[in-house]
Amino acid sequence: MSTGGENAPVSPRGGSTGAHGRNAQRQRVVAFSWLLGGLLVTYALVITTGERLLGSFARTVALALVLLAALRIRRLSRGRTGAIAVVSAAAVVVAALATAFARGTVLTVLTASTTLALVTVTSSLVIRYLMVRRARVDLATVLGVLCIYLLIAMLFSSLHEIGGALVAPYLGGTSAPPSPGDCLYYSVITITTVGIGDIGPVSNLARMVTVLEAVVGQLYLVSVVAAVVSGWRPGVHRGAA
């Protein structure tokens, strides 16, 4: 009798915990879906409006919203949440001031720097979730890995923007300096090793950044992405960690 009495409450608690875990998993999938969608929208903005004056500001606003969306991935302390909100707001303010008062090299460097900051902070949130919080592979993990891949390409795109603004000539087959759309396009074909050939590195700095991106992209694909995809079993649900 005593044994049965001790075991009786376990099932309701376990059921409640299981339901809570499934609900939390769904929330993480939704959060990563918004994050992935926001990054794709940002890509479209850079490609279509990158050469326009307001295009740089629109990109910063989009990435700031992506960073805020990344806060939904996991709970953070109030201090960290506040700090990330400050980073997002500061990036938007810097981009707004740069759009209003800066031109040429200064505008490019400031805009690319805000992109670097936002991409780095967003990546750190996703990586922390993937490396620390997850003991298994689920849909949220797969979406997170894909988000990191897009963030890596955007990070190197910003480095190419800065390099193109400071070094001339930097890339061949583009205007001087290369537009944000050209830099993102070149970054994507580099990290995916497509090698179309219409745009290529001219300066030593461009070659160095290109080689680094190609190596990072390939290592990421053959290690992280391959491991995650091979371990993913769609439709198999386990208790949340």
Automatic annotation (TrEMBL):
Ranges that cross the membrane: 29-47, 53-71, 83-101, 107-127, 139-159, 211-232
InterPro entries linked: K_chnl_dom
Highest rank taxon of the organism: Bacteria
Pfam families named among the record's database cross-references: Ion_trans_2
Domain Potassium channel: 146-229
Record carries keyword Transmembrane: yes
Key words, A-Z: Membrane, Transmembrane, Transmembrane helix
Presence of the UniProt keyword Membrane in the record: yes
Region annotation (Disordered) ranges: 1-22
SUPFAM superfamilies in the cross-refs: Voltage-gated potassium channels
The protein, known as: Ion channel
